[in-house]
Write the C-alpha cells for this entry.
Amino acid sequence: MTERVVVDDVGIRTEDGDYCFGMPWSEIQHVSVSALAPEEHKFLYFEVTHVSGEFMEVGETVDGFREAVRDIAARAGRPAPDLGALRASDPMLEIWPAPNPGARP
C-alpha cells in the first residue's frame, strides 16, 4: 500500500497499510513547507512540529501531499503557497497556525 497523508478535523497523519502516525491539531505548534536542493531537482516537504519539539516530515512523494499543503493553509486562513515557486534558498514558509494566534481549525 502507498503512503498517504491525511488532513482532517482531528489533525495531520500519514497512513501506510496498517501503520498510522500523526498529531492532533491541539498538539501541533506549527507547520512549515520548504524545498531541498538542488534547484533543478528540488524536493518539497512539509514539517509538522509538535508542542514537545518532536516533528514529522512529509515529502512530496507521499500521496495527497499537495492537497494536504492546501488544506492546512486553508484551515489557518492563509493562501495556499505556490509550491512551484519555492526555492531551496528560501526560508521555510509557515502555513499553520493562523496569523491570528486565537484562531484554530
About this structure: The mean pLDDT is 92. Helices lie at 65-75. The first strand starts at residue 4 and ends at 7. Strands lie at 4-7, 11-16, 19-24, 28-36, 43-50, 55-59, 93-96.
